[in-house]
Write a structure and sequence with these properties.
The structure holds 2 protein chains of 2 kinds.
Chain A: H1 7-20, H2 28-38, H3 43-49, E1 55-58, E2 65-68, E3 73-74, E4 77-79, E5 86-87, H4 98-119, E6 123-131, E7 134-148, E8 151-165, E9 169-184, E10 189-205, H5 211-246, H6 252-274
Antiparallel strand pairs in A: 1-2, 3-4, 4-5, 6-7, 7-8, 8-9, 9-10
Chain B: H1 2-8, H2 15-27, H3 34-45, H4 48-65, E1 69-71, E2 78-80, E3 86-88, E4 91-94, E5 99-104, E6 109-115, H5 122-138, E7 143-148, E8 162-174, E9 179-191, E10 197-209, E11 213-227, H6 233-270, H7 283-298
Antiparallel strand pairs in B: 1-2, 3-4, 4-5, 5-6, 7-8, 8-9, 9-10, 10-11
Helix pairs in contact in B: 2-3, 2-4, 3-4, 5-6
The chains are: A alpha+beta, B alpha+beta.
Chain lengths: 275, 299
């Protein structure tokens, strides 16, 4: 069912995205529900544009856990990457082509090992779907920890989207959104949450279709390690920095006097050097 | 998905429900982003008449909830908007200037000034002087309001000398660096006598960073401190300010400490820097291995 978006709907969607970028990330679920009732016509498109923390479901056939998102959804059903079947069952739900399904099976096993190596737990899922000139895939990872070492709750979600154009040289366009949420309750409540999105591109000669997995895997790893390295600054450093612009722990009187002293000393030294 | 759920349950909203949604989004606008949020909400609601009806109240609620400071015309001073100095939706008492300020809540500006009937009191003036000095020492910008309040029923004895609220509000925003922040704290002060009193503080710090997405930090704390054995009124008022200083410094220090702590935690419990092998995960050999297995199956 293809329905052309009207200009009015486009504007509303743009406004919704802009609004959600200002609202507390911790309220995202509630805010999406409010938007669904306020502007129901745009909610389908909006859900595709806005990244939400991933939800976990259990495959009824294999009993293994998998992650649900828009990329394995058809109507109100979700496709398990383990069984390739929909839950609740669908007569003819969208599935990847045979060659992509093979790649998808390999990918889920491969990324399960990757996930174990870095996250030591958590859940991962990979979904492929066909495109005209190649394929797209989503690599998803979720890790959640509760009540451990003074942290009330910590959640890490990685959502990697790839668009691969196949040819003598295949191009890979990557968009990765990392959603992090940490809340502590020790002596006072501190909560940090939100998402950041980055992109990368690569080009490789591909002689054998499973080489795609190596390239996608390398890009996932490189991006996650870069993001993780900047998490400290982006999530926590920024919070401390902005707070220091709001308030000074040390009396500004003292800071001012220190500044005056430093300036006076500088002047004295300059005079001395001139002599 | 959500849309089919909404349509199935015929969830079309009443005017009141739409207004509640508007008020919710406006209330949670980050520091100095109110006008941007209002702009987005107007486009989403698509009903100018409804917005005209709900915006003054929505913005009022935002401003008093967040202790927004407005500039007093022809003056360097700023006045904190709070429920404690509010006369009605758009009028607020400025005890320092002895005026009633008329406020445009959407613009966060003063649009009119009238003389106030109430008279200031000595003790409130002294508290204000000490509070102003404290603000200058710890905040670049922002405002501090000292508002006399009526004691709650049954608590009159605890406030024989003075009951009031000290509100601090500060907002900063750097558009180029894509961040904004808000500090708001309220201290309910009950002075029983020249030697005893109680300070109950509610503190809140909120940061929004949106360069590559939407990241927000919020910390809050509530704490009561009893004061006793002060030798005179001057010592008591000084002690109230010292108590506020300590509450805010402890709160501020804890934010810094927890931010550092959580960064460590994220690395150790959520995702490692590298696998335990200290080597990158090798997608190459694994992929080849699986390709080989697949080829084997095809034979």
């Amino acid at each position: 069912e293809f329905r052309r978006t009207t200009e009015k709907e486009s504007m509303a969607e743009e406004a919704a995205v802009a609004l959600l970028r200002r609202m507390p990330p911790a309220h995202l679920d509630k805010n999406l529900r409010m938007l669904a009732s306020l502007v129901p016509d745009i909610i389908e498109d909006l859900l595709q544009e806005v990244d939400q923390p991933l939800k976990v479901q259990k495959c009824p056939k294999t009993k293994k856990e998998y992650l649900i998102c828009d990329y394995n959804r058809d109507g109100d059903s979700y496709r398990s990457p383990w069984s390739n079947e929909y839950d609740p069952p669908l007569e003819d739900g969208a599935v990847p082509s045979d060659r992509l399904r093979d790649l998808e099976k390999q990918a889920n096993d491969l990324f399960a090992s990757y996930r174990e190596a870095y996250y030591e737990g958590g859940v991962s899922s990979v979904y492929f779907w066909d495109l005209d000139n190649g394929f797209a895939c989503a690599v998803l990872i979720k890790k959640e920890v509760t009540e451990d070492k003074g942290v009330q709750k910590g959640v890490w979600d990685s959502i990697h989207l790839f668009q691969v154009n196949e040819g003598p040289k295949s191009t890979y366009e990557q968009t990765t959104t990392t959603i992090l949420s940490l809340a502590s309750k020790d002596k006072q409540k501190v909560q940090v949450s939100g998402s950041l999105t980055r992109q990368a591109e690569a080009e490789h000669e591909v002689k054998n279709v499973s080489q795609h997995l190596q390239h996608i895997g390398d890009m996932v790893q490189a991006m996650e390690n870069t993001v993780r390295a900047s998490v400290d600054q982006v999530y926590f450093g920024k919070a401390q920095e902005v707070t220091s612009h709001l308030r000074s722990k040390m009396s500004l009187d003292v800071v001012g006097k220190q500044g005056d002293l430093a300036a006076a000393l500088k002047m004295q030294l300059a005079r001395k050097n001139a002599e | 998905g959500l849309q089919s759920f909404v349509v199935k349950n015929n969830m079309s909203l009443t005017e009141e429900q739409k207004k509640d949604i508007v008020k919710h989004f406006v209330k949670f606008s980050p520091a100095k982003e109110l006008q941007s949020v209002v702009k987005s909400v107007k486009k989403l609601v698509g009903d100018a008449e409804l917005m005209k009806q709900v915006l003054p109240e929505a913005c009022h609620d935002h401003n008093t909830f967040n202790l927004i400071a407005v500039s007093v015309p022809d003056s360097e001073r700023k006045v904190v908007l709070s429920e404690h100095n509010e006369k009605d939706l758009t009028h607020f008492y400025d005890p320092v200037g002895g005026k009633i300020l008329e406020v445009d809540h959407e613009k966060q500006e003063v649009t009119g000034v009238e003389d106030a009937e109430e008279e200031d009191t000595d003790i409130r003036k002294k508290m204000q002087e000490a509070a102003d000095k404290y603000l200058k020492e710890h905040f670049k910008g922002g405002a501090i309001g000292v508002y006399t309040t009526k004691p709650k029923d049954g608590e009159e004895d605890d406030c024989k000398l003075w009951s009031g609220v000290i509100c601090i509000g500060n907002e900063v925003r750097n558009k180029n660096s894509c961040w904004s922040g808000r500090w708001k704290s309220t201290f309910v002060v009950a002075l029983k006598s020249e030697s005893d009193g109680k300070v109950t503080g509610k503190l809140n710090d909120h940061v929004h960073y949106y360069e590559e997405g939407n990241i927000q930090m919020e910390s809050s704390k509530e704490h009561t401190v009893e004061i006793s054995g002060m030798k005179d009124e001057a010592a008591l008022l000084k002690k109230v300010i010292d108590t506020i200083r300590k509450l805010e410094n402890d709160f501020h220090t804890e934010i810094d400490a927890q931010c550092s702590g959580m960064a460590d935690y994220a690395f150790r419990s959520l995702r490692r820097k590298l696998p335990i092998t200290k080597q990158l995960f090798d997608f190459g050999s694994s992929a080849h291995k699986l390709a080989g297995e697949l080829k084997g199956k095809e034979k």
